[in-house]
Amino acid sequence: MGSKFPVKNVTQDKPASQTIELYESRKRIYPKEVKGRFQRIRTVTLWMLMAAYFGFLWIPFEGQQLIYFDLPHRQFHLFGTTFWPQDFYLLALLLITAAFGLFFVTTLFGRIWCGYTCPQTAWTFIFMWIDERVEGSRNQRIKLDVAPWTTEKILKKSVKHGLWLFVAFWTAVTFVGYFYPIRELIPDLFTLNADSGWAYFWVFFFTAATYINAGWMREQVCLYMCPYARFQSVMYDQDTWAVSYDYNRGEPRGKRKKGVDHKALGLGDCVDCTQCVQVCPTGIDIRDGLQYECIGCALCIDACDEIMDKMGYPRGLIRYSTEHELEGKQTHVFRLKSVGYGLAMLTMIGAIIFLLGHRVPIDAEAIRDRGQLFQTSTRGYIENAYTLKLANMDTHPHKFKVEVSGIPGAELVGDSVFEINASSVREIPVTVEVPPESLENSRYEIEFVITAVDNPKLTKEIDSRFIGPTRGY
Fold this sequence. Notes:
Oligomer: single chain
Distance between the termini: 128 Å
Number of helices: 15
Structural class: alpha+beta
C-alpha cells in the first residue's frame, strides 16, 4: 500500500520562434534576349502599336489632331468625327464590345493579349531592349549588378536610367497631348506657360508611373496588380490554346550530347538546358504546367525551338497547344463558350455600326419662356417665346432652317435660318405666332424641325408646348 506510481516528465522543449513572411520578397528576373518566328511577330506588333500611340496625335485633320479629347469643351475628336457627351452611349457600347472581344480571344488563345498587345508588355519590352543594349546580355547584367560600384558601372546605370526616364517622359507628354494640343503642349511645358498646373502634374505622374511600372515593377504588375491575370483562368478550358510543354515527348528530361541516341538512354527530347526559364519575363518554368503567371509571349517557344534545331530534334516541344491535343484528343474550336462570346461581340459591333450610320450630328433643345404664358401681337396673333439651344456636332459649319408644326398656321416670327459654326453651340431666341382662330384649346403640343440647308439628311425634331388663352379670353 505504501508504493508510489512512477512519475514521468513529459514536458516538451519550447520550440524556437519562427517568423512567417506574408509576402514573398521579389527576386529580380533577368530575361535573356531570344530571336525567333514568334518574337518577330511580337516585335512588329509592339512597334506598330508604339508608332500609333506616339504618331496619331501628330497627324492633323481639318485643323484638329487626328485624336483629341477636348475636355474643357466636352468634345472628342476621333478620326475626323466629333463626339459629344450625348454620344457617351457609344463609348459604353465600345467598352462592352472590347470586353466581349477580350473574353472571346482568351477563350480561344489564352493570354495572347498580354503577350502581344498589352501596354505593360509593350513598355516593358522597350525598357528591356534598353537594358540589353546598355548593360549587355543576361549574364553580363547579372555580373554588373553584383559587381562593386566602379566608374563603368555608374556610367552604364546612369545611361540606362536616363534612357528610361526619357522614354517615360515622352510617354507622359504624348498621353497628355491627347487632352492638350501637342503642338501647344511641348513649347508651353518648356516655357512654363501651360494653361493649367494640371498639365505639369499629369506629365510628372505618368512619367513616374511609366518609369516605375516598366522599369522596376515589370512582371509584378502582371502577377499582382492586373485583375485580368486573376480572372482569365475561368475562361480557360481543355480546348484553349496556350503555351504548353509536351510532357509526353519531353520527359524524362536530361542532358546529353548532340548525336547521342537519347531514346536508348531512356530520355525524352528535353535536354534540361533551362533556356525556357532564362528567357521568361515572369520567371516561371513552363515545364511545370499551365500557370497564371504565363503571359503567352512565346519567348520560351522560340528559345526551345532554337535548341531543338541545334540538337536535330523536331520543333514544338514547347508550343501553342491545348490540353486535349497534348492528350491526343481532338481540339474543338466551336464550343458554347467561344461561340457565345463571339456572337455577343459581333452583335455589339453591329449595334455600334448601325448607331454610327444613323447618328445625326445635331442636337437641339427648346426651352419655353416661363416668365410669360403668351402675349398678343399687334395684329392679334398669339405668341409664345422660346430659346432654341442648337448644337452643331459636325466638323463643318451649317446653316439650319427652323420650322414649326403641330398647329395650323403656326410660324416663326422673323428669321428662320441660322448659321452655326462647326462643333459649337448657339442659343437662339425665337417666337412662334399662331392665328387665334386656330386655337380651340389652351395647350398644344408642337414640334420644331431643324434641317441643315446644305444637307437635308441632317434633321432633328424636338417637342415643346404652346400655350394660348382659355375660351372667353
